[in-house]
Every structure is written in structure tokens, then in C-alpha cells.
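Could you help me review a protein record that somebody else here produced? What it holds is a sequence and that sequence's fold in C-alpha cell form. I have pasted the whole thing underneath without changing anything:
=====
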Amino acid sequence: MQEPGAGSRRDYSPADRLLMRLQQSLQTLAPRPQDPAEAPAYPAGSLPEASMDNQARRRAAGLMRVNHAGEVSAQALYHGQALVSRDPAIRKHLLHAADEERSHLQWCETRLGELGEKPSILSPFWYVGSFAIGAVAGLAGDRWNLGFVEETERQVVEHLEDHLQQLPKDDQRSRAIVEAMKEDEARHGDEAAAAGAHPLPLPVRGLMKRVSKLMKFGAYRL
């Protein structure tokens, strides 16, 4: 079932869009077999696996679990924002970005499997909370909606740059994934700005950082 603005001519009702968001939620959270060949353009596919001790491997896995949780949250934010967006063109923009975030989600799940770990058990919580935040942001209007995207992606890029400093030096596979994600996230932010995003007030940006820290703390450990 296609969303309006994504190639379909049908005029979907709010109820239709809500059902589609729920379907996407299940697709985001449902466990599925992870094979590097199945992950779209898997950035680490041709790189060797590093020889890491247990401490380094746990460190890499914890960071990739945080990245996975971040991608679950990104999916939810975009879905929540798209649900209430009034402008079909902006809704299409949000859903296209969500599709690219799905690739990031698959990359992180694949890497976690390679490291012998699983995603955060709190993923459903991250999704529900982020969906609600996205819907509230969207209700403020489409230009503020885009401003929320721009600021979110700016903070994500900072977060990924920090992870590149923290990942084990020899873990080329994890590093390649984070680098590819960072490039996509920066582009999403630039596209939102070009589409007419309104800069968010400083208190809102600060609140977003505090929520992000809470998510990272929980996802790294659980």
C-alpha cells in the first residue's frame, strides 16, 4: 500500500495513513534474518573482520546497538511527522528519508549479528516515544516539521562523529557503516533546510539533546 505523495493518486484519509504507519511500525520492529547480502548496499561487505578482544567487541556492539536504536527512533519520527503533514510534497520527502533510514536499520542489525549481539530490548519504547514526538512536531506546521528534521539530523551527525572516535580503531566494518550513515544523515538535514525548514528555538534543541542522551544511555546497556 503506497502513501500519498509516493506515487499513488489515491486521496488517503487520516485513518488510512494511521493504519499504514502502524504497518510500518511492525515492519520496523519485527525481527528478521540478517544477512549482509540482504542489506541494501551494505557498506562493510568487502571489509575484513577485525580481531578484537572481548572488551573491544562489547564496546563496538554497544555503540552499534545505540545506532540501531537511533534508526528505530528516526523511522518513528519520520512516520509520526508524515502522518500529520499537511503538504503532500513534504510528506513525500519525509517518507523518502524514512526509506533510507530503513537501510541504516538493516546495516546496524546485520553488524550487531556479526558481533554476536542483539538490538536493544527497549526498541518498542523508542519507537512509540519517537512517533509521538514526531506527530507533535508535525502538528506545529510543515516548516517547523522540516526544522525538526534539520535539527535532528544535525545532532545525529554529531553523535555519529563521536562514535567514530569511540569505536575500536581496527573495527573497519563498524566504521564503514557509521561513515555511510553520517553522509546520508547530513544530506537529509541539508535537504530539509533547502525545502524551507524553520530553525528551532534553543530550548527545543536542548530538550532534543537531553532525550537523545537518555536513549543512548538505555540502548547501550539494554
